[in-house]
TrEMBL record:
Residues passing through the membrane, by range: none
Protein location: Periplasm
UniProt domain PET hydrolase/cutinase-like: residue ranges: 60-260
Cleaved signal peptide residues: 1-23
Source domain of life: Bacteria
EC nos: 3.1.1.101
Chief location: periplasm
Keywords annotated in UniProt: Periplasm, Signal
Protein name (record): poly(ethylene terephthalate) hydrolase
Organism, as annotated: Nocardiopsis aegyptia
């Protein structure tokens, strides 16, 4: 178990505070069968097929497909926790990228997310919106497929929230140590930065070492420091999108990025300085066709 000793400060956040509240992702939505994944436009690091919108609330900021009210499918959910002293706008580009791929992102409006309370509140909010016949989200939220992610302190929060029975997978990005992954029972992709001098890679590896009871992957982004994901998410956009498309949409094209004998991230030395998969990840089955 990782000790509960300190919070991780996140600084220089002004780098990401520019740009309009909403954004448009290039192509129009593809024809789909309700409840199935929409094919990604290009690679997982490219914009997805949905134009996007932002709804800033008191507790939660939502990033989502702009025409969700007219969608013919339900959209999976990603709950997000910020780093210390940060707010969702700092990670705006990553949130909009996920939304362009068909996800509803519920980002906690708090700079102190470690307890995961505001992240759970994001799920509660979307449960209410989905049930509300007057909401544009009515009948459009896939509450059966929910992932949790976050950066730094928020990365630890995504591990904390991982014990919520509504959550199906976690993706902590450079997580601080205030969490216990022993309480998590869903697949985990733990991301570190090779040059992170705030959350050192060995701290993330400790989580990975404790995650032998679940399918877990450790990925260390080559050259990344603690703020690489801030603003333009760069090398974090594609793998995070692929992970969530696999686990929350059943996207078969994302499976070989992480699993099977030809694991893409395992052989991509340009992007990754270290990749590790535990025994349960080695045996992880492909999604049903």
């Amino acid at each position: 178990m990782v000790g509960r000793r300190w919070f991780v400060p996140l600084t220089a956040l002004v780098l990401a505070l520019s740009g309009p509240a909403g954004a448009a992702a290039a192509p129009a939505p593809a024809d789909t069968v309700p409840g199935t994944a929409v094919a990604a436009a290009g690679g997982f690091g490219d914009p997805g097929p949905y134009a996007t919108a932002v709804d800033v609330g008191a507790v939660t900021t939502l990033y989502y497909p702009r025409d969700i009210a007219d969608s013919d499918r339900r959209h999976p959910v990603i709950v997000w926790g910020n780093g210390t002293f940060a707010f969702p706008v700092v990670y705006r580009e990553l949130m909009l990228h996920w939304a362009s791929h068909g996800f509803i992102v519920a980002a906690a409006n708090t700079p102190q997310s470690n307890l995961g309370i505001s992240m759970r509140a994001g799920i509660d909010l979307l449960e209410r919106r989905d049930a509300d016949s007057g909401s544009e989200f009515h009948g459009r939220v896939d509450l059966e497929n929910i992932g949790a992610s976050g950066h730094s302190q928020g990365g630890a929060a995504s591990i904390v929230v991982g014990d919520d029975p509504r959550v199906d997978t976690i993706l902590p990005i450079q997580p601080g140590p205030l969490a216990d992954i022993d309480d998590v029972d869903v697949p985990a992709f733990l991301m570190a930065g090779q040059r992170d001098s705030i959350v050192f890679p060995w701290l993330v590896k400790r989580f990975y070492g404790d995650a032998d009871h679940i399918p877990a992957i450790y990925g260390e982004v080559r050259g990344a420091n603690h703020l690489t994901v801030v603003g333009d998410p760069g090398p974090f956009a594609a793998p995070t999108t692929a992970w969530f498309r696999l686990h929350l949409m059943g996207d078969q094209a994302a499976y070989p990025e992480f699993f099977g004998p030809d694991c893409g991230i395992c052989t991509d030395d340009e992007t990754w300085s270290d990749v590790r998969r535990n025994a349960l990840a080695d045996q992880f089955p492909a999604p049903a066709q």
